[in-house]
Amino acid sequence: MPHDNTPILVGGGQFTQRTAQQKNWRASQSPMQMLIQAVRLAADDTGVANSVLKNADNISVVRFTADTSEVGRLPVGQYKNPPRSVANAIGASPAKEYYTCGGGSTPQWLVNRTAEEIARGETNIAILGGSEDLATMTSALNEGAQLDWGDDPGGEPIHIGEDRSGTNAQEKAHGLYFPVNVYPLFENAIRAEHGRSLEEHQTKIGELFSRFSKVASENPHSWFPTYRSPEEIATPSASNRYVGFPYTKYMNAIIRIDMAAAVIMTNVKTARELGIDESKWVYLHGCGDAHDLWYFTDRIDLHSSPAIRTLARKSFGMAGTSVDQIDFFDLYSCFPSAVQIGAQEIGIDLNDPRGLTVTGGLPYFGGAGNNYVMHSIVTMMDRLRGKPNSSGLVTGNGWYVTKHSMGIYSTKPFEGVWQREDPASYQRELDAMSHPRFETAPEGAGKVETYTVVNGRDGPMMGIIVGRLGNGDRFIAHTPNDAETLNGMMEVDCIGRTGVVSTGEKTNTFVYEGA
Which of 226, 273, 424, 466 is the most buried (most CB within 10 A)? Predict the structure, then answer.
């Protein structure tokens, strides 16, 4: 029998708005309207919608992507206090109004944090949700249309989460603020670690993401419910050009979507008092939050994640289970490298017959901005309810394999007192790990550690190198941008190649030996 204050998820709702997809964006709901609809769907799922809505004492909203930009909020209007806007719409008067930071790890982090508040008796009924109207927003802005999505219901929400920049000045100057430029660096490092040729590795990641597209093709909420073969995903073509080598377009998260998702959380005692059927209850058996060394240029290497490894150990330990006993997975999947690093550190084979996603992944289900993992959680709830006593694992990833959150869920009751280890206790160990020194003004002989070629619609535009100097210090640099150099980097493996790096006024330059 679970304790009265054991946290549980009792409702989940999600939907996909297809008006922009159908070239009819003017008929779209606003992000707030979408969020409120998802909240109502989650409340309906509990079977006691009116009770959970009016008695919610915690409303937490995942930050909208349009309100996340470091260079200024996008010109679509601003929600001054999103939790209160939701509360006003559903007739609630919550004591806590939380608005999170950005990042793909945020929904799972928010569930973990809320579960802790519930277990301590600080929250009774919580509504967590988010929405993204990025397809509608992009369509409108492309046509020069004005959007006014703002709302000021009064008050100031409590801002929660880690919101510092994910890049240092050097990374940003070299174009490494954009995820499409950074994750390919991880991918080539993974390939080198496994000793694969360019062709062999491209085949591997095509096969990996083809399986994701198969799941998406069977998910009614997917933005692209289309199966794509490994060859179609891995092979560059007119409709599938390279973006950041070795990634083709079909290997990249798609952020131009309109989606919303929400969950309802409470405790066992309240669920019983409200009459929520136990078939709806989903327990959070294990969880954890951590981050790797904050700037990727400081990492121990570019093909692993000590933070995910630590979270797996902590989460499985809390849940009293192992990876072999998990029935369903949803590994964060913005790019193939994120999936491979996550699977490696958790201990899952990429070809595991259980599959690595329940949604279909960010490139095919849809990269719902900061809120994608809320869709993972709602979908996982559905899977677990359909298979009593089964278990599922969800991971979230923010910035550049930087911020991580993990949750192990089951309909099987949690036994004992629900209490998780303070993440700060193991974060200290991660922060103290030794790592290469990053040189901001490199000069002299160097060797390529990993690399990518940034491509535009008309072909290769820029080569980016992460390298090591003779003393082991790491540096970043651009290559000359002539066609011969850039095309050659996509035809012949460059990892391990030597050259000379020099410091420039804004960016460093690496010239291959013999060039």
Answer: 466
Same domain, 321 and 450: no
Confidence of residue 514 (pLDDT cuts 50, 70, 90): confident
The total number of residues shown for the chain amounts to: 515
Q: Is the pLDDT of residue 206 over 90?
A: yes
Q: Amino acid identity of 142?
A: N
Q: Which of 477, 475, 474, 476 is nearest to 435 (CA)?
A: 474
Same domain flag for 266 and 403: yes
* Residue that is written with structure tokens 């990374």 in the block: 171
- Residues 486 and 371 occupy one common structural domain: no
pLDDT at 358: 98
Q: Beta 126-133 vs 391-398: how paired, if at all?
A: unpaired
Q: What is the CATH number for 103?
A: 3.40.47.10
Number of other residues whose CB lies within 10 A of the CB of residue 204: 20
Do the Cβ atoms of 271 and 8 come closer than 8 Å?
Answer: yes
C-beta of residue 323 within 8 angstroms of C-beta of residue 347: yes
pLDDT > 90 fraction of the chain, expressed in percent and rounded = 95
Instruction: Identify whether 476 is part of a domain.
Output: yes
Pairing of strands 328-330, 509-512: unpaired
How many CA atoms are closer than 13 Å to the CA of 251, on its beta-carbon side?
Answer: 33
Provide the number of structural domains found in the chain.
Answer: 2
Per-residue DSSP letter, 145:
-
pLDDT of residue 72: 54
d(CA 309, CA 482): 41
Secondary structure (DSSP) of 367-392: --GGGHHHHHHHHHHHHHHHSTT-EE
Question: In the predicted model, what is the mean pLDDT of residues 404-420?
Answer: 97
Distance between CA 175 and CA 173 in Å, rounded?
6
Residue 246, preceding bond cis, omega within 30 degrees?
yes
Distance CA(333)–CA(351), nearest Å, equals: 15
Q: Which structural domain range is residue 460 located in?
A: 444-512
What one-character-per-residue DSSP string does 88-131 give?
Answer: HHHT---SEEEEE--STTHHHHHHHHHHHHHHTTS-SSEEEEEE
Classify residue 425: in a domain, yes or no. Answer: no
Residue 278 shares a structural domain with residue 415 = yes
